[in-house]
Structures are given as C-alpha cells and as structure tokens.
Amino acid sequence: MTQTRNVGLRLVATILLALAVIAPSAGQDLQGKVVEHTLKNGMRFLIVERHEAPVFSAMVAFKVGGVDEKTGYTGLAHMFEHMAFKGTQVVGTKNYAKEKPILDRLDRVAVQLARLDAENRPQDASRRAALAKQMEQLQKEAEQYVIPNQFDEIMSVNGAEGLNAFTSKDITAYVESLPSNRFELWALLESQRIATPVLREFYLERSVVAEERLERTDNDPDGKLYEALVTAAFQAHPYHFPVIGWMSDIRSLTRPQAEWFHRIYYTPGNAVCALVGDIKPSEALPIIDKYFGAIPAGPPPPPVVTTEPAQDGERRVQVLFRAQPQLSMAYHKPTLPSDDDFVFDVLNQIMTGGRTSRLYTALVKQKRIAVSVDSDTSSPGARYPNLFEISATPIYPHTADELTRAIDEEIERLKTEPVPDRELQKAKNQLDADFVRGLASNMGLASQLAYYQLVAGDWRYLLRWRERVRQITAADIQRVARKYLVPQNRTVAVLQPLEASPASSTPGGAQ
C-alpha cells in the first residue's frame, strides 16, 4: 500500500507519461476491443481480452483522493486505503457479532479523546490519560477476534500477484493480478470490500500512517521540499493538502469519520473497474452483475468547488533541513483536456526527457552545476489545473541561485527561439515509444483505462492524445512558454542546509 509523492503520485505521473501516444494499429485495435459495461448502480467496467496467458489484471479505482478532503480530516482518503485491506464482516474476523460491540465502544472513546486532544486543556490531563488507557484495553479485547491479513492471504494463496493500492491527489486505486480461473473469487472479495468493509485495527493503523508521514515527509528532504512547494503554490484549492495528511489531523482521525468517508465516496457511480487479460466478457459479465450489481447505488459525491485564483506575483519559500541543497519551481498551468496541456507534455520532454534533453545537457553536462534535473507536467494531480514543476539538485559548491538562473536561461530560449524540427520530432518519437512500451502488460493497460475514465471522463482520451500531439508546432511551444513560464506565475522552493544563513540563501537574493 502506497501513498506519497514518491510512490502514489509518481505512479500516476508514470501512467500519464505512458499514456502519451499509441501506434495507429494498436489504437484501432483498442478502440474495438474495449468492452464497456455499466451496472444499474452506476459502476462502470472496462474489459479487454488478452489470451496470451491464463491470467488477468484488475484495477478498481475511485474518483477520490487528497483533493476531496478538508481541513480537520486531511489524510482520510489514504487512511481508508489502508483500512480497505482489513477485511469484511466475514473476512478478517473470528466472530464479527462479538467483535462489533467492542469496535463501537472503542470508537466512542476515540471520539472523546480526539475532542480533548483538540481542546488541549491542562485540567483534562487525567481524563485524557484514563481514556487512552481505556482505548488500549479495548484494542486488546478487539484483537482476539482479528485474523490478521486474511484478505491478503486468501488472494495470495489463490495466486494473486501485485496486490497493492495507492492514493493520489485525484484517485484511490486497488490492483492485483490473478489466474483467470479465480475470477469469481476476485469478484466476491472485491465487491465485499467495497460494500461491507470493516475498519478493524483502525487506531493501530493510524499510528502506522503517522510513522509513515514522519519517514516520508517530515524526515525526508524530498518530501519536505515538495510539500512546501505545493502548499505555497495552492493557497485556496485543496491541492495544497498533502495526500498523507497533516500530522495533527492523522492523529485525530476516527473510525466513524472513515466510515462516513466510505459512504460518501465509495459509491458504485464513483468507481471504475478495468479488467485486462484472459477474460471472456460473455462469461465475466454475469459474475460481475451477480456480485457488484448488488451494491446499493448512492448519490454523487460533492464536487470540489474551490478554484485557485490567478497568481499575481512570484512566491518563494525556504526549507531548512539537514540535507544537501535542492531547488523546486512550479508554474501554474491548465490540465486536460486543454490544448495547452498537450503542448506541455512535449515541452516537458524537450526540457528533461533523457540525457540529451535541454536542461540535463545545460545543467549537468555542460555547466556541471547540477547532479540531476527533472520536471513534471501533472503535479500534484490532473483532475484540476495543476503545475509544471522543475526540480534540480546542485553540485557543491554551486547553489540554488545558480540553478535558478541557468533554468531561466533555458526557459527564455523556449520563448525566443523556435524549437528545431529535428528536436521537436525527437521529443514526439520518445513519447510515442514510451507509450507503446506501456501497453505491454495487462496491468499497465488496465491502469491506463481506469485512470483516464475517471480523470478525463472517457478512456478514449488516450486514443485522441496522439493525434493532437502530432499537430504541435514550434510556435505552440513558444506560445505556451511565453504565456505560462513567467515569474509572476511561479513558486520557487529551496531546501538549504540547516546551518545556512536564511538571509543569504534565498533564490534571487530575496530576504
């Protein structure tokens, strides 16, 4: 199970890159091979037959992520992803009838304790200690009915591979691959964990997630810098919430909150399931209807209504940390299906797509002022207008200031000099090759179909992508660079060694 930018978000970014283009014949084949089926409750299935091996891959994805949270319960989407592996009223328990009353009592104590923790009054110290002790005792009572990891074990014993999940800003997804003769078992277990999950061991897992935040964000320079960049770039839109959540929110989450979250967002109409492999739709659809069709429909989840105001000046943020300096800068940009979003994918390839790209050549090979340089066109997500992010690590004794100036020089080139035809075509060819390779696995295709169905509203978006990218010109690159890659639209974040002087290490000399 994964969540952070290093895994969850990067997985989505990889999917976005892989979905760049498709060879004409493969596109035509896919257009005719995807079988679409929507249940009466609104859950959509996308099925592609591939009979090369007696296995299939599945991705069940929900249109819910960190962007759907609010202050006070950030991290809930990720927390629920963890809990979805804890079982149901049948799986993971020795006796649910006896387990449930204990879980209910545990929740009541947890809610009281969370309230006291939020108020943080000295006179409540003894009461808080008593409630904490009561929670510990109830957790021990509940443990006697738990069969740890039974969901995973059932899947694994039946040949499951790649059993995992991830939460991003935009979606939460559950993935696995199984022998095709275990399809009905998969349908039974997956439908039950959607319909009747039991969030047992919630407060124990909450502590695990808190440790995960410490490891991957608070004590990690990459995570620390990225969080600072995004929270500065998005001041109104909920993209500024970290997917894993703020630590104070994580420590106060309760099981009733997670159950509420499940009722709101884990409705069939908010889900897509992509199945790719040794599956015959004529045999699979009755099984799908039997198990998933019984899940009650629910109302559409509430939309995200907050929009990010146009940025009216460059923002700068500094993070002091015991680590080597790093630089990240981000420009606001539109997301799909905007024409400019297509242009950014090609621009991104030109700037950091491999060892012959412009920024790698300039910063790493020629000027030798950077250890590495990278960029991303879908940070931190793609459901809503997002960021074009550039990150780099300087070589000692070079500084973030030097990297900023060198990157600015290459951005200015994009604005003033048309990209040569040969370089532009090379970027398109590289994107094309990346996508073709991404089609090789069942899981890769299942991920692509489910992701685009949720984020773009139609999996066919991936078929239309290539034709639009082929039409992008050098003039398009110049136009987009001039429009978006400007200082007033930029946020700059620098990680400096803790011993450094804050006044002397801000990019551009800002105090």
Protein model, in words:
The protein contains 19 helices and eleven strands. With 511 residues, the protein is an alpha+beta fold. The protein has two domains: 5-291, Cytochrome Bc1 Complex, Chain A, domain 1; 315-509, Cytochrome Bc1 Complex, Chain A, domain 1. The strands form two sheets. Strands 1-2-6-3-5-4 form a six-stranded mixed β-sheet, with helices on both faces. A five-stranded mixed β-sheet has the order 7-11-8-10-9, sandwiched between helices.
Layout of helices and strands, plus pairs?
Elements: H1 5-18, H2 24-33, E1 35-38, E2 44-49, E3 55-62, H3 76-83, H4 96-119, H5 125-143, H6 150-157, E4 161-167, E5 172-179, H7 183-195, H8 202-218, H9 221-233, H10 247-250, H11 255-265, E6 271-277, H12 281-291, E7 315-321, E8 326-333, H13 339-352, H14 358-366, E9 370-379, E10 386-394, H15 400-416, H16 421-438, H17 442-455, H18 461-470, H19 474-484, E11 490-497
Parallel strand pairs: 2-6, 7-11
Antiparallel strand pairs: 1-2, 3-5, 3-6, 4-5, 8-10, 8-11, 9-10
